[in-house]
Amino acid sequence: MSGDVLDGWEVVIGLEVHAELATQTKMFSSARNVFGGEPNTNIDPVSLGLPGSLPVLNEKAIELAIRVGLALNCKVQRSVFARKNYFYPDMPKAYQISQFDLPINEGGWLELPSGRKAMIERAHLEEDTGKSSHVGGGGRIHEATYSLVDYNRAGVPLIEIVGAPDLRSAEEARGYVAELRSILVAIGASDGKMEEGSMRVDCNVSVRPMGTEELGTRCEVKNINSLRSLGRAIEYESRRQVDLLTSGQRIEQQTRHWDEAEGRTHKLRSKEEAFDYRYFPEPDLVPVDPSPEWIAEIAASLPMLPRQRRVRLAEAAKGEVADAALIVERGLDDLAVEAMEAGADATRVLVHCVNNLSEGAGQLSTGSFAALVAMETGGELSATQAKTVLADLVASGGDPAAAAAAHGFEAMDTSELDGIVDGIIAAHPDDWAAYVEGDEGERKKKSGFFVGQIMKATRGQADGKLVNKILAQRAAG
Amino acid sequence: MTDPISRDDVTHVARLACLSLTDQELEAFTGQLANILSHASDLEALDLTGVEPTSHPLPLVNVLRPDVPGEPVDRDEVLAAAPSVEDHQFRVPPALGGNT
Amino acid sequence: MSALELAAAIRSGERSAVDVLEEHLAVIDAREDEIHAFNLVMVEQARREAVDIDAHLAAGEELGPLAGVPVALKDNMCTRGVPTTCSSKILEGWKPPYDATVVQRLTAAGAVIIGKTNMDEFAMGGSTENSAFGPTRNPLDTSRVPGGSSGGSAAAVAAGFAPLSLGSDTGGSIRQPAALCGLVGVKPTYGRVSRYGLVAFASSLDQIGPFAATVADAALLLEVISGHDPLDSTSIAEPAPGLLSVLDQGVEGLRIGILDELSGHGVEGISPDVLARLDAAVEALTAAGATVERASVPATVYGLSAYYVIAPAEASSNLSRYDGVRFGPRTDGATTNEMMVATRTEGFGDEVKRRIMLGTYALSAGYYDAYYGKSQKVRTLILKDFAKAYEKFDLLISPTAPTTAFPLGAKTEDPMQMYLQDVCTIPSNLAGHPAMSVPFGVGDDGLPVGVQILAPAMGEATMFRAAAVLEKSGGAQ
Ligand SMILES: [Mg+2]
Ligand SMILES: [Zn+2]
Question: What's this model's pTM, rounded to 2 decimal places?
Answer without folding.
Answer: 0.90
